[in-house]
Task: inverse folding
């Protein structure tokens, strides 16, 4: 393990692996707002990205072929993995084997087996593994957890959510399901995770259906998927994720006394809006999204510096991937799928909230575009 843990006042040194849209738009700028963290290297096989972004952030750049040699050099304490989903496991295991901590984008991996391999490699090498669930540090979402737990809306019974966007042909999100492409891996994971932290439980059964409008971009995967998850106590959670309609990001949890609704529930820009309705009386509250990526980096660095186990852990990532796999199986077979018992030990709370003001920077993208195709 790197020596940074014994240096309480030092900064954790990060290499960012993968320079696609999410890395350029949010992750790289976040280091300017993360006081306990330092960007020290970038990895990409795109020569133009390496040249322009290395110059912009004034850090050395490397190809993926140089990854293992770099890890062994001791030049970084942690990696932020922002690669396509099917590469998460390989690059996590390589980092762990070199004694380097891992902050990995969600979904954690494509299969449960890959998740378990990642967890095992990090545990065996005594390095920390965190999955980048930025909303576990967001005030609006964690306040929703507190409100539901308080009993204010009564016993929570129903969760529903819609998370959608238009995704342009050629985008990595349109990779086949076998590579971790599709709406459930990319967007449904937010809805699944929110249902779990709002119900404070794990689903026992799922049933799902896919729909497709026949466009060429959806030849190898779903245009949209709707799923129903049964939770203990016969609570139901439903969601629809889509790559073919206008952008929407809402959730609602209904209890026996009232309901809580969030608009822009999963957003990292602008405001996240919350409505609580009890006895036909509605209270509204807005929360700034802030810099959620800086918040998760700051939190993970604190865990490294203070030798604490992160939440969200690898087990949290595994919990969602096993549900994703069950949803995919149900949609393919048109049959319900039962889930084995799973006990998640730690859940996010408002004590984890880290509010960092949003950056003013609107970075120019290099050989990258947002999901809708806008560069």
Result:
């Amino acid at each position: 393990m790197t020596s940074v843990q014994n240096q309480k006042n030092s900064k954790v040194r990060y290499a960012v692996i993968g320079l696609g849209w999410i890395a350029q738009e949010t992750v790289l700028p976040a280091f300017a707002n993360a006081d306990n963290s330092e960007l020290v290297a970038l990895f990409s096989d795109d020569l133009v990205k390496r040249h322009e972004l290395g110059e912009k952030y004034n850090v050395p750049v490397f190809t993926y072929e140089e990854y293992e040699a770099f890890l062994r050099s001791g030049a970084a304490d942690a990696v932020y993995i922002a690669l396509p989903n099917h590469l998460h496991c390989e690059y996590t295991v390589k980092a762990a084997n070199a004694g380097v901590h891992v902050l990995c984008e969600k979904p954690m991996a494509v299969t449960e087996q890959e998740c378990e391999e990642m967890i095992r490699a990090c545990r065996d090498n005594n390095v920390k593994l965190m999955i980048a669930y930025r909303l576990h540090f967001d005030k609006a979402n964690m306040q929703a957890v507190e409100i539901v737990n308080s009993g204010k809306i009564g016993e929570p019974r129903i969760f529903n959510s819609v998370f959608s966007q238009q995704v342009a042909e050629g985008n990595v999100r349109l990779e086949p399901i076998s590579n971790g492409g599709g709406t459930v891996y990319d967007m449904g994971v937010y809805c699944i995770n929110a249902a779990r932290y709002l119900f404070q439980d794990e689903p026992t059964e799922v049933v799902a259906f896919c729909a497709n409008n026949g466009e060429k971009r959806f030849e190898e995967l779903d245009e949209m998927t709707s799923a129903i998850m049964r939770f203990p106590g016969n609570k139901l959670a439903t969601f629809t994720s889509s790559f073919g309609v206008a952008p929407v990001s809402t959730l609602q949890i209904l209890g026996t006394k009232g309901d809580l609704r969030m608009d822009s529930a999963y957003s990292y820009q602008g405001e996240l809006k919350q409505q609580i309705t009890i006895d036909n009386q509605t209270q509204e509250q807005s929360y700034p999204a802030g810099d959620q990526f800086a918040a998760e980096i700051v939190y993970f660095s604190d865990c490294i510096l203070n030798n604490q186990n992160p939440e969200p852990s690898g087990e949290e990532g595994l919990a969602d991937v096993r549900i994703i796999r069950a949803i995919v199986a149900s949609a393919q077979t048109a049959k319900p799928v039962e889930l084995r018992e799973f006990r998640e030990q730690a859940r996010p709370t408002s004590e984890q909230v880290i509010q960092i003001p949003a950056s003013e920077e609107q970075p120019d993208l290099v050989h990258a575009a947002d999901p809708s195709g806008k560069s």
User: Anything to note?
Assistant: The two ends are 39 Å apart (CA to CA).
